[in-house]
Amino acid sequence: MTTSITLPLATGGLETLTLNATGPWRKPASLITSRKVYAAAHVTPKVLGGNVPGAPADIDWDATLAFRRELWSWGLGVADAMDTAQRGMGLDWAATQELINRSAAEAALFATPERTVRDLLACGAGTDQLDPASVEPGEAGLAAVLAAYREQIAVVEASGAKVIIMASRALAKVAAGPGDYLALYGTLLSEVKEPVVLHWLGTMFDPALAGYWGSDDVSAATVTFEQLVEAHAAKVDGVKVSLLDASHEVALRAGLPGGVRLYTGDDFNYPELIDGDGSHHSDALLGIFAAIAPAASTALQEYDAGRPAGARAILDSTRDLGLHIFEAPTYHYKTGIAFLAWLNGHQAGFQMVGGLHSGRDVNHLVRLFRLANTAGLLLNPGLAATRMAGFLNTAGVSSEAAVGSAVLEGANT
Fold first, then answer.
1. What's the first-to-final CA gap in the chain, in angstroms?
2. Model-level pTM greater than 0.90?
3. Is residue 136 classed exposed, middle or buried when 0-12, 13-18 and 19+ CB atoms within 10 A define those classes?
4. Distance between CA atoms of residues 377 and 387, nearest Å
5. Quick one: pLDDT at residue 152?
6. Which domains, ranges and CATH numbers included, belong to the chain?
7. Nearest 5°: phi and psi at 214?
């Protein structure tokens, strides 16, 4: 029996869509070794929690941790407490600390000598407990940023997870130029206990990070970034670059010191960047991997098996979904990650902390549903159709047709 649903067209009218079978995805039987990857995971709010804009995050810990276990089961690492988890966008520092500690405790249960907690979990350390409005350029502002970073790095280190030093809105405000970035990051890198990941997040993800590394010019900022990495290579596990510029990443990747990884954060161009150019390839720390985990895992297993063409074909088959989820305004990509998680049964309701689930319109989410179906990433088509029909009914979109057209086949509601 097939599953079908009537969906609205952006141009008006309705169309009945017969859903595809889930893709030929398989969980790994052994450790994935060809690429080092982390999927940036979101957080799930309590259905009846007070997760309105400006309120402290009220998290459904069971669902949130279950989603991390799901990613680990596909052989992927988890990047936690990152922008995908709504850092500074609904997830406050108190909830972030609890998220880091809970995720690390969960990771410890899955750790082995071959796959340590640091392999399973990398967590963001930033300065979001510090209100950027409370700091001003100068020594006092820089000292406040340094103290905030130290506090968060200590929390991540104590948990056993790998540290990701995130970009700081407060530092972007107080730094007078490249020298301030080099000095502050240099101090942090001299203090960390184990190698960290440096995160360069572009303004398409967070406009408050304009001028990071001391310049609005990407070429000039890159020079500063490369100076930092070169000077502290022994303390840098890798760099995560989220500028959505494949040519920039390829050039940066080729010039990194030996042993320093390039974790692509390019959710548009990840297939070719992970595939590589024959001389270098990118590893990955991607929000889109949380949405396409079964396909990403299967592709990585193909690389491990020496079948790069098959791996690349799988990654390419997910590209349109990635381009859509991360389309402008890219800031709201997290809405699509949560929506697909809901369709696939990983959370009870389509909600996000801070009310951010309102960040995309109905047409965007309908197209997301279509693209996930095309990619074979609706893991239970019957459940996905039932939930999509209910969403459309609530949205006031031809509710009778949508509900009436969903043909259920063993779907859980």
1. 18
2. yes
3. exposed
4. 15
5. 98
6. 37-328 (3.20.20.70)
7. 95, 10
